[in-house]
Amino acid sequence: MLVWNTIGMFFVNVDSKSVHRLGFRPKGDAVYLVEEIDSTRIISNKWSDVLEPVSPILVELQTTGSVAPVTALFDSRDAFDAGDSEAEKFMRGLVDNGTLDDAVKQCCLAATSEYNYEAQKALLRAASYGKSFSGNTYANELKDDFRNAHNKLRILNNLRDVRIGIPLTSTQYDTLTPAVIVQRLCACKQHFLAAKICKLLGMSNAKVLTHWAYLKIASNTSLDDDKLCSTICRVFQLNNAAVSYASVARQANELGKRDLAIKLLQSETQVDEKVGLLLVMDDYDRALKCAVRSQNSDHIFTVLMRMRKRAPDGSLFTKKILTSYPAAADLLVLFLQKQQELHGNDGNYRENDRALLRKVRESLPRPCSL
Question: For residue 108, how many other CB atoms are within 10 A of its CB?
Answer without folding.
Answer: 28
